Amino acid sequence: MAVNVKAPIIISQIVAEGMIKRKTGGSIVNVSSKLSLRGRQNRLLYSASKAALDSVTRTMSLELGPHNIRVNAVNPTVAKTDMSKAVWDNPVKTKMVTSVIPLGRFAEVSEVVSVILFLLSDFSSMVSGSCIPIDGGCVANLMT
């Protein structure tokens, strides 16, 4: 909980304080997980902490909106990073997860970054309080 909930709260408060002082408005994007939207066996604390982060995101959007500060979250599936390779290098384990993703694969880091950049940009100036899955349709798949 300290890393997935408390740290983003503290960092967001510091960033928001600066935005409020400068009267610039701005955008904060939290990195959550698709597991916040859909539980998974043996992932209780992780799923709960990311669901809490989604709630923090929505609540902060209400509190900071009057200061023209937007707050959103992205909820990616596994992204292909050096860290994830250690866990997902096993083809059998990978197939078990990718088989319930309609697009049939994990996310590329660039696909997650693209959504974050969009949320930080003026192109999303009316988007706030949203938690956006980047999961190839996994959350929409009722069979998972």
Entry keywords:
alpha/beta; 48% helix; Rossmann fold; 12% strand; 144 residues; 3-stranded parallel β-sheet; 5 helices
CATH fold-level assignment: Rossmann fold
Low-confidence stretches: none
The CATH class designation is Alpha Beta
Strand content: 5-15%
Tally the beta strands.
Answer: 3
| CATH architecture title | 3-Layer(aba) Sandwich
Strand order of the largest sheet: 1-2-3
**What is the domain tally?**
1
* Helix coverage percent: 40-55%
CATH homologous superfamily classification: NAD(P)-binding Rossmann-like Domain
Mind summarizing the main beta sheet?
3 strands, parallel
The rounded Rg comes to 16 Å
What is the tally of helical segments? 5
The CA-CA distance between the termini, in Å, is 25 Å
List the helices and strands and how they pair.
Blueprint: H1 2-22, E1 26-31, H2 44-64, E2 69-76, H3 82-88, H4 91-98, H5 109-120, E3 131-134
Helix pairs in contact: 1-2
Descriptive notes:
By secondary structure, the protein is α/β, with parallel strands linked by helices. α2 (about 45-65) links the parallel β1 and β2 (about 70-75). A 3-stranded parallel beta sheet has the order 1-2-3, with helices on both faces. It is built from 5 helices and 3 strands. The longest helix is centred in the N-terminal third of the chain and has 21 residues, at about 1-20. It has a single domain, classed as NAD(P)-binding Rossmann-like Domain (Rossmann fold, 3-Layer(aba) Sandwich).
